[in-house]
Design a protein that fits this description.
The chain is mainly alpha-helical and 196 residues long. Helix 6 crosses helix 7. The chain is globular.
Length: 196
């Protein structure tokens, strides 16, 4: 996909996430597991045109932009901030900008440069965070978010658990050799055999 197409696709996702705000934020499941990924994906697509910026010395090993993404995600996962984004348009626009620029853009600029060990740690952290949130939302005696009902909160916790299982399977299965094998070089590409 060309850079122009990526930017247009990202802008379209961003616009859709904002225009469908009422429907997406009507339940916490759609809010956190549909709108959040839409905004993050939009930012990642748009940031594809800024790859050279992310390759600067300030972002050595992708650490700076990845850490920014982690802290921004932790902030917008707080139930209080979730309530604020539902209650006020200004907070919702701030959320959209943060998720797109700081998380989507941060991961797009930092992930390709990150050390494999850092990637593995972040993947493990994402799975454990989803597991903790699943436990929290399913076992909390009262509502964590005032904007949503207790039943909605319960369903969100169950979906967090399913998301954790899905991500764990997605990242673990290739370790057992189920990925596609690399194509073998053709005889023509390797050149004629040496007669000597």
């Amino acid at each position: 996909m060309s850079r122009a197409a990526q930017i247009l696709t990202g802008a379209g996702l961003l616009a859709l996430a904002l225009l469908a705000r009422g429907w997406l934020e009507a339940t916490p499941t759609r809010h956190m597991l549909v709108q959040y990924p839409m905004l993050i994906a939009a930012g990642a697509l748009i940031a594809g045109s800024l790859v050279q910026f992310g390759a600067g010395a300030w972002n050595r090993g992708g650490v700076a932009s990845v850490l920014t993404a982690i802290f921004a995600m932790a902030f917008w996962m707080l139930p209080r901030m979730l309530d604020a984004s539902v209650a006020a348009l200004s907070a919702d626009l701030l959320k959209a900008a943060s998720l797109a620029a700081l998380i989507g853009g941060g991961l797009r600029l930092g992930w390709p440069r990150a050390h494999p060990l850092l990637r593995a740690v972040l993947k493990a952290q994402a799975i454990s965070m989803l597991g903790i949130l699943a436990f929290l939302y399913t076992h909390a005696p009262g509502r964590l978010c005032n904007a949503y009902l207790l039943d909605d909160q319960q369903r969100l916790g169950e979906m967090f658990l399913l998301a954790a299982i899905a991500l764990a399977a997605l990242w673990i299965i290739p370790l057992f050799g189920f990925s596609h094998p690399a194509p073998k070089p053709s005889a023509q590409a390797s050149g004629p055999p040496n007669p000597h």
